[in-house]
Amino acid sequence: MGQVLIGHVEDQASFQAIRQALEMERPYLRVSRMEIHGQTELTSERGGMRVFWIYRGRGEVFLPAGYRTQEGDGQKLPAEYQPEPLLPAFAQLLRQIQSGLSTIRPEAQIPVRAILSRWKAEDTFVGDIGGELWKLEHLPRPWAEDPQTEAALAELFGHYRSVGYSTKQSSSWEPIMEGDQLVVDSQQSLWVRGQFACLSMEHTQRPLSHVSAVRRLRYLADTAGGCNPDFDPFRRLPLTWYMNAPGDADEGINWVNSHVVNIPRETSPSHFHPSRPIRGGQLQTEMYLVLDPDSYRLNTSGRTPFLIVFPELRNLRRYEQHQLAPGKLVYIPPGTGHRGLDVFVNVLTLPGFKPHNEYYIDRDIRDLTSGASPYNQTLLEAKNYQRIEDLLA
């Protein structure tokens, strides 16, 4: 489908090449970078929804009284935030799920229990469960043996975007840092101050944002899955896939995803996103914005981060290995095999991590190259494995 491009956000020539590739692929998109020195107002440049991802430095954002956010399922939000009362209909769904927990199938227990963990008290629910519903949607139905519990789980898809909010009671400046996400649109700007740098994308045809203006990693829950399925991962979702109902997966509501994840080599699968999307709609392009693990005191054991790329899926003997470092920016077009190793990265996808749109290829790499190309020995039995020759037929 295209060539993998690797550059640095602050290298003009390589950044320009990646920017041009993205904007040619998606004409509605405008890509830029911004340096903040002192106090600045972040605004939409073309009347669209604009997202900023901090990749270096620290600062503050001004958030007024009345500001609403779905953060708080990681570290607790500051005292000036008040969780909003639980909607009665949503509370009834949670009670039904809790009472029917023993009837839920084992593979669905992890996302369901993660959803219930955000139910802090009888009348309080904090955080965004979009990521858990994405996992649930990938599992075969029924999710529960009890019909009422099954129906309650399905109804969550109609409620999750309006619940889990906390409201700020007083205006103040709040800290922001590397890995955090800021969002503005045609009707909302943000005042920031400090010394930091951002990668920015604006959807020029999307005038309003569908998410809260600030997502800070420290206030987001770790959600095991993807390239880090361990029980204690660093995998936080500032902007995940949103859908209105199970199976509503062609395009979803979002136009970009952001997953900040520490990818250890032991749990990282070789995979690709097909050039013909499984359920139609837009192709899925993936980006790596490499971050500094020291920012979050991650123990990387002195490992060097790499990206392995398989540019030709019909010839897995051909591969590239690229060393990565903080500030590196990678453009991975659809239909390209890849695997990150020991890298702390903000994985950006356009239009997002489309459900059922990923195939694992470690077994093919082993079998079709007689082990000559690198593969993950521990992930040879991936559940959604299909032979490459069948997928590319």
Tell me about the largest β-sheet: 6 strands, antiparallel
Q: How many helical stretches?
A: 7
What proportion of the residues form beta strands (DSSP E)? 25-35%
> Got a strand count?
22
Structural class: alpha+beta
Characterize the overall form.
Answer: globular
Give the integer mean of the pLDDT values.
92
Kindly report the oligomeric state of this protein.
single chain
Q: What Rg, in angstroms, do the CA atoms define? A: 21 Å
Strand order of the largest sheet: 1-19-16-21-14-13
- Which spans of ≥5 residues are poorly predicted at pLDDT below 50? none
Give helix % range.
10-25%
How are helices and strands ordered from N to C? Answer: EHEEEEHHEEHHEEEEEEEEEEEEEEEHH
C-alpha termini separation: 15 Å
Descriptive terms for the model:
globular, alpha+beta, six-stranded antiparallel sheet, 393 residues, 17% helix
Describe this structure in words.
With 393 residues, this protein is an alpha+beta fold. The protein is built from seven helices and 22 strands. It has helices spanning 12-25, 88-99, 106-116, 130-137, 147-155, 362-369, 388-391, and strands at 5-8, 29-42, 49-63, 68-69, 81-83, 119-121, 124-125, 166-168, 172-177, 181-184, 190-203, 214-215, 235-239, 257-263, 271-272, 285-290, 306-310, 320-323, 328-332, 337-341, 343-350, 359-360. A six-stranded antiparallel beta sheet has the order 1-19-16-21-14-13, covered by helices on one side. Strands 2, 3, 9, 10, 11 and 12 form a six-stranded antiparallel beta sheet that branches. Helix 2 packs across helix 5 (147-155) and helix 3 packs antiparallel against helix 4 (130-137). The longest helix has 14 residues, at 12-25.
